[in-house]
Amino acid sequence: MLPVLLFLGLACFGLLAGEARRPIVFGGNALPGCRCVLLRECPKLRPPRGQPLTREIIVALQDVRCGFLGRIIKVCCEEEQPSPPTDLPLTCGDTNNINRIFGGRNAPLGGNPWMVALGYSVLGQGGQLELSYECGATLVTRQHVVTAAHCVHPDAIGFQTLKQANIGEWNTETDPDCFVSPATGRNICAPPVVVRQIAAVTWHPQYNTDGKYNNDIAVVRFDRPVTLGPYIQPICIPNNFDPNMLASSEWNPQALALGWGRTETLRSSPVLQEIRLPLVDMQRCNASSQIKLNENQICAGGVTGEDTCSGDSGGPLVATGKAGGKYFLIGLTSFGPSMCGSNGGFGVYTAVYKYRDWIVQSLAV
C-alpha cells in the first residue's frame, strides 16, 4: 500500500515518485519548530491565488512535505515567532496579592509575578554538572528580564554558565508550587513554572569601569516570550526616583527586597523570601561604606538581622506609592557587607530608573 500512497501524493503535483527529496512521514508528524498542516493552511508556503503550480514551486514543496490527508499533501509550516518587544509595556506592576532573605519571611505565592530565578550549570561535588539557582531577576517585558551585571559577566561567574530562567517560580524544589490557605484550609496551587532558555545577554558597557559594582545591571532576553497571566506579570520602571526626597514624596519609604539567597540559617531558601527594608539617603550610606557610592546606586537596610545576602544578587528592590497601587522596580541587589544583616551595614542596589533609556535600547539586542 505504501508505493500506491506515495505515487498518489506526488501525482497531485505532477511529479514521479523517483524525484522525492526525503522520506515522507505518513503519521502527520511535524519536524521541531513547525506544524504539519495542509498546504492551504500555511500562508507562508501557499502560492498566491491564481498562480499556477510551477515545477519550481512543486520541487520546493517536496522539501517541506510531512504527510498526506487522503491525496492532499501536508507541509511542515514553520511556527511564526513574534518579534521580541522593543519597548517597556504600558501595563505593568500589578499583583494578585493584596498584602526569607536575611530576617525575612516566605513571600506569598503569586504575590510577586515579576520575580524570576536564574539557573546556572555548575560543577557538583561529584564532578557532574548540576543546575543551581544563583541569582534573581525581574521581568520587564514578555521576553526580557533585568538583573545584576555580575550575575552574567564572564569575569564574575567564572566557569558557571547561565542556562535558563524560571518564570512564575516560588519554590525551586517543587513544580507546581502549592500552599495550604490558613483561612480555608484548601490547597492552592500556581500553574507550572515556565522555563525559558537564554537567547541573549547584554551587560552595561561601563560595568566596573569606574568603581567596583558600578553600573551593575544587565538585560537578558529569552529564546521566546512568555504568556502573561495572574502569576506572570512585568513590573514597572519609574521615570524618576530620589531616595533623598522620600519624606516629601509620594513613595513609600519602605522598599520590598526579594530573593532565594542565604537566610539567617546561612543556607539558601528554596522558597522565595521577602523583606521590607528602609531606604537610606546616600550621605548616610557613604559615611558607613568603604566604597564611594554614587547617584546610580541606592542604599537600604541597616537594621540588625534584616538584609539581602549571598544568592539574592540581581533580584529586585521594589517600591510602591504611600497609598499602595502599582509596584515599581527601583533597585537591583548588587552588594553589601560581608556579614549580612549587621547593624548599620547597608545593602547597595543598582538604581534602575537611572538606566531606563539604556534598558529600552538593550531590548532590541
Automatic annotation (TrEMBL):
Keyword Secreted: yes
A Gene Ontology cellular-component term: extracellular region
InterPro entries: CLIP, CLIP_sf, Peptidase_S1_PA, Peptidase_S1_PA_chymotrypsin, Peptidase_S1A, Ser/Thr_Proteases_Immune/Dev, Trypsin_dom, TRYPSIN_HIS
Annotated signal sequence range: 1-20
Uppermost EC category: hydrolase
GO biological process, one term: proteolysis
Record flagged with keyword Metal-binding: yes
Record keywords, A-Z: Calcium, Disulfide bond, Glycoprotein, Hydrolase, Metal-binding, Protease, Secreted, Serine protease, Signal
Record localization: Secreted
Enzyme Commission number(s) of this protein: 3.4.21.-
GO MF assignments: metal ion binding; serine-type endopeptidase activity
Domain Peptidase S1: residue ranges: 101-364
Main subcellular location: secreted
Domain observations: The clip domain consists of 35-55 residues which are 'knitted' together usually by 3 conserved disulfide bonds forming a clip-like compact structure.
Family: Belongs to the peptidase S1 family. CLIP subfamily.
Name the record gives this protein: CLIP domain-containing serine protease
Annotated organism of origin: Hyalella azteca
UniProt lineage: Eukaryota, Metazoa, Ecdysozoa, Arthropoda, Crustacea
